[in-house]
Amino acid sequence: MLSDYNTRKRARLFGFVVSVALVSILGCAPDGEEQRVEQRKNPTAPTAPATTGPLVAFLGDSITAGLHVDEAQAFPAVLATEMRSAGTPIRLLNAGRSGDTTAGGLGRVDWILAQKPDCVVVELGGNDGLRGQPIAAITENLRQILKRIRAAGATPLLLGMRIPTNYGGEYATEFAALYAALAAELQVAFVPFFMEGVAGDPALNLPDGIHPTVAGHRKLAQNLIEPVTAVVRSATVKSE
Questions:
Q1: To the nearest whole percent, how much of the chain has pLDDT over 90?
Q2: What is the pTM of this model?
Q3: Which of 73, 104, 167, 230 could staple 69 via S-S, CB 3.0–4.6 A?
Q4: Cα 203–Cα 206–Cα 211 angle in degrees, nearest 5
Q5: Which of 53, 49, 104, 56 has the alpha carbon at shortest distance from 76?
Q6: Which helix (H) or strand (E) holds 128?
Q7: Is residue 217 flagged as an active site residue?
Q8: Which of helix, strand or coil describes residue 45?
Q9: Number of separate helices (H) and strands (E) present in the chain
Q10: Among 100, 118, 128, 211, which one carries the catalytic annotation?
Q11: In the prediction, which pLDDT does 239 show?
């Protein structure tokens, strides 16, 4: 009887540890992160000093938010610095939120559009995929986000993602394909896999294997400088 009790106790402890690990992997906000998230939702607390140029908003999850790195080291801020140095200055609104899903992004997009961005970079879906959400639901949420951005007069840029095969190879394949299909359907600018060269590289990711290090964020900024610059210039021409 005592042996059975100890076995059940160890099983409950293991289940608790696994639950904590999954919460961490899915990007829930750590201590201090909630305050940063609330600041990004509050129009009176800009996420970066204003500069000249078009306003580019980044609607995303913990990758955009820069989980476990300083906000100035997250790829949106690095990208803004690189673009300014290259002669295409932008004003930055980092609306990344740790743990966010496509449904959460759809619920927040109207506030972002109220800030009158010229461009909106959409980096969402990773948490949906890690939770095994239906592909149709993820697609529809992203479709509505992109349509609202367009209707507000802003130019969207959709960032494609991939996930591990935790839910099977077929699900992972369908997940990756939904971004290209949606971009083709709505004729929006699209980056097939914005974490190219970062995902799966231990040197560029934190121990959780999902969130980039400072060097990883610099690589993400390099991946995006050309497509974001192209979208910004397109939006500028459209507004003239």
A1: 75
A2: 0.81
A3: 73
A4: 110
A5: 56
A6: helix 126-130
A7: no
A8: coil
A9: 9, 5
A10: 211
A11: 63
